[in-house]
Amino acid sequence: MIKRSEHRKRKRLQTCLSMILAAMLLFTAAAVPSSADSGADSATTLLASMGIISADSSGNYNLSNTVSRAEFAKMLVMASSCKDLVDTSSKSSPYKDVPSGNWAAPYIKIAVSNGMMSGYSDGTFRPDATVTLEQGVNSALKLLGYTASDFTGSFPTAQMNVYYSNGLSKNISGGIGTLLSKGNAANLIYNMLSTKLKDGSKTYAESLGYSLNDSGAVDYASIISDNMYGPYTVTSSNWAGELGMNASALTIYKNGSLVNASDINTYDILYYSQSKGTVWVYDDKITGVYEDASPSQNAVTSVTVSGTAYPLESSAAFAALSSTGSLKIGTSVTLLLGKNGGVADAVAATKINASATVYVTDTGTKTYTNSNGKEYTSFYFKGIKPSGTEIEYTSTQTWVEPGDMLKISFDTNGNMSLGSAKAGGNIIGTADADLSLIGSTSIAANATILDTNLGNYAKTSLERLDGVKFVSGDVLYYEATGGKVTALVLNDVTGDTGSYGVVTSASSKETSSSVSGTYQYMIDGITQTLSAANTIYNVNAGAAAKFYGESGEISKINSLKPTGSKLKSFTSTELIIDDSVGVYPISANVVVYSKATGSYKLSTLSEAIAAYQNKTSVSFYYDKEPSRGGCIRVIVHN
User: Fold this and answer.
1) pTM summary value
2) Are 421 and 479 in contact, with CB atoms under 8 Å apart?
3) Which long-range contacts (CB under 8 A, 24 or more apart) does 18-24 make?
4) Are strands 574-577 and 526-533 parallel, antiparallel or unpaired?
5) 182-193 helix and 69-78 helix, angle to the nearest 10 degrees
6) Distance between CA 187 and CA 136 in Å, rounded?
7) pLDDT of residue 42
8) For residue 418, what is the enclosing H or E element?
9) pLDDT score at 195
């Protein structure tokens, strides 16, 4: 194995932790937008999986439209303990203006009989009428256990006071008299799930039987998994019929994005809920040499394929990869990964002309063991797929280098072919996080975005890229599903793959035959040294700089740019200067140093702000224009 510096190890660990944290936050951080379709963010996925909201035939949730009384009745019922009482085959007519064959009839019947809503004195329900915010709030409060006796005075003042004080109003616009949109209705129910019942004993979600996570918050991942079946391997176009479902009536998510049934392919892995009419599909595949089974092939719980270990998550995977299965150690296999990144199934590589796109992060040689137990040495390359999955492959094609964007394919005999991956089109224009766009290109709410440079990568987000102007060459590669980009690989747009700090000393030597430089620098308060043969970097002691190199090794230094002196304001998130740029965002990982008698000491952002407020000298350094992804990277104060 090629040795790695301690700096690289720390950086990789930080990257892994960030990716894990982002995955954990996926189900807890977002709420359904009240005025625009949300795509497939976490709250939309949650409410759709519970059957509370559903998309139309075009895949739109139409969240900005007003919600009708019939639609709201269904939302309330599906968000209650009565959801399993719905009998869609019932032909009873609860109201004279709700025919027995009306789709909403069973929901209206349950909503009214359980006190969630009321009909009118003339014997009508008026299913197409609109709902006001206060009417929706009143229904939500009833589900939380409140009754009319809990409120004094005229409706709806007391009810709205409880609405605001209990946090039910989060992400909801408008007040009394406002017509309730579908988005605001969804937000109301989403907020209700984490609200305490009137008696304070538990949250509403807990009253439905859902649990809390380790942080004491509602475990939304368990809600989505409730009544979810799978994994199921797609083997034919009639997969829905085989599962007893009508494909045209399903809400389908593929890799987190809303898609149509026609987007499901053979050997995709899916999970499904018949009661909720929802299907979750994943198509991540790993092809390589089956190297090892742990703890043994007789009782396998994880397998190693091309240098990477993958846990098994199903009986189908065990059947295929155990000693009684058809896949033997030393053969080429394709692992079909499920929703948690484990192996949901596995097939011989010859069954699938599998392919993968990979950004190469590392290359080298190391020792492997073949199916006969003999060791052999092979060239390998590591990389990351656009979906965020890290991989390793052995290869005889030693021309591969860190930073390459490869298209990997396998023939029916499992032999690998390598070629350059092409993006398939240009994505240019300004990124708009609110509209989920880069120029005119739509970006899925849960899209994986990787910024790369010289074999390094950093996971980023559309929020981080908001306002950045993309030009030709900024996007190395992208994948799209259902008309939205689901994975994006960038070419050093953010600069987040580098490390930032200060140069503490610099010296160079030049002779008639050679040049060299020695640079001492500080990153994260740790002093390191770079000896550069045949290179002299144009940096001096005291310069703030970017430090980077191939595959995490530091071999290059670039000076950062100081901002102007006409500082107007300085906060923890941005710097405003009276110049042509104006606003400079401050990096979430900004490095702050205090400087005294020529030496540097690691400091904090709050200490720098305090120094600025006390009229002490503070200097700011950025890597490139904010419109091109740059931000304040280093701050030095006296």
Assistant:
1) 0.63
2) no
3) 18/459, 19/388, 19/459, 22/459
4) unpaired
5) 20
6) 11
7) 56
8) strand 416-420
9) 93
Q: Are 406 and 419 in contact (CB under 8 A)?
A: yes
Single-letter residue type at 348: A
Nearest to 286 by CA among 313, 301, 307: 307
List of long-range contacts for 296-303, beta carbons under 8 Å, 24+ apart? 296/323, 297/321, 297/322, 297/323, 297/329, 298/322, 298/323, 303/335, 303/343, 303/346
Instruction: List 379's β-bridge partners, or say none.
Output: 365, 395
Give me the torsion for CA of 38, 42, 48, 52, rounded to 10°.
Answer: -90
Type and span of the H or E element at 138: helix 133-143
Residues 6+ apart with CB under 8 A from 217: 28, 194
With beta carbons less than 8 A apart as the criterion, state whether 404 and 438 touch.
no
* pLDDT digits 0-9 by tens, 35-62: 334 333 556 767 877 778 887 766 678 8
DSSP 565: S
How far apart CA 518 and CA 515 sit, in angstroms, is 11
Helical spans, DSSP H, in 461-520? none
Q: Centre a 10 Å sphere on the Cβ of residue 510 and count the other Cβ atoms it contains.
A: 10
pLDDT at 28 over 50: no
Percentage of the residues of the chain whose pLDDT score is greater than 90? 60
Which amino acid is it at 94?
P
CA dihedral 342, 346, 352, 353 (to 10 degrees): 50
CB atoms within 10 A of CB 526: 12
DSSP code for 343: E
The answer to whether the CB of 337 falls within 8 A of the CB of 310 is: yes
Beta pairing partners, 528:
521
Other beta carbons within 10 Å of 102? 17
Sequence spans of domains, the chain: 27-222, 227-282, 285-420, 429-491, 499-559, 561-637
Of the candidates 605, 591, 575, 594, the residue with the CA atom closest to the CA atom of residue 633:
591
How far is the C-alpha of 629 from the C-alpha of 485, rounded, in Å? 20
The total of other beta-carbon atoms located within 10 Å of residue 631's CB is: 22
Angle at 340 between CA 339 and CA 345, to 5 degrees: 70
- Smallest CA-to-CA distance from 138 within 152, 120, 159, 154 is with 159
* DSSP code at position 351: G
Which residue, 42, 81, 339, 15, is CA-closest to 190? 42
Q: How many alpha carbons lie under 13 Å from residue 471 in its C-beta half-sphere? A: 4
> Strand pairing of 456-460 and 441-453?
antiparallel
Hey, what are 361's tokens? 């992060």
For residue 40, which phi and psi values (nearest 5 degrees)?
-135, 50
DSSP conformation class of 615: T
Please list the residues that pair with 458 across neighbouring strands. 451
Per the CB < 8 A criterion, the answer to whether 475 and 461 are in contact is: no
pLDDT at 253: 84
Edge-to-edge strands, sheet with 526-533: 526-533, 515-523, 499-510, 544-548, 556-559
What confidence category does residue 11 fall into, taking pLDDT thresholds of 50, 70 and 90? very low
